[in-house]
Structure formats: structure tokens, C-alpha cells
Amino acid sequence: MKTLLRIFGFASAFGLALAATLFAHEGHGGKPITVVGQVVDTGCYLHHDSSGADHAACALMCAKAGVPLAIVDEKGKLYLPIAADHKNQNTKLIPFIEKKVKVTGLFYEKGGLAGIEVKTVVPAE
Length: 125
Prior knowledge:
Elements: H1 2-22, E1 31-41, H2 42-48, H3 56-64, E2 69-73, E3 78-81, H4 90-93, E4 100-110, E5 113-123
Parallel strand pairs: 3-5
Antiparallel strand pairs: 1-2, 1-4, 2-3, 4-5
């Protein structure tokens, strides 16, 4: 009987820990947003204001080396993708380097940083 109670106790604790892990990133209050802007590599964009079609090859090299990509809207606001799915966000944006895109997702802002949990990214018209 003690063994059965011990197994039940461990199973319950494991179940609670699993549920906490699965829901740890849910419900953090992001607001739905659609951003239209250009995909840029943050290193060159912030350091020496490089962007545009002439910069695409450099931006691709930077992105493949791990430099984060971001979206800069038409007003100049920079949105950094949030890795809420624990995956490299550059993989979603690499096909659109230095191109105009329409991104939907959830908006978060903290400490002056604008972030977007990317749900969809498509070429902008």
C-alpha cells in the first residue's frame, strides 16, 4: 500500500510539474498586432544604418551567423521577434531579408523594447 501511495504521489507531482511547464508561457498579455515594415539585421541597422536591397547579401550573412533579424516599420519603430516557441526566429524572417513584409502576432513592450511574437509573415504589397 505504501508503494502505491508513493507511486501516486510521484505521478501527481510529475503531472503538476508538467502542467506548469506547458502553461508557463501562456497568458502573458500580448496584444494582437499587425506590422508592415522591412526585415533588417539588427547589427548593421543599428551600428551603421545599413539596410535595403544593396545590403541583402550582408544581412543574410549576418543572420546566418546569429545576428538577430527584426522588422522596422514605416515610422522607424524596430520590432524584435520574441522566441516564445523556443526556436530561432531568424528562420522565419530569413526568406524576407531586406524586403517589405506584413507580420501578425502578439505585441509586447518592456524597458523601451518592442517585441512581437510572430504568428505569420508574408510579403507586403
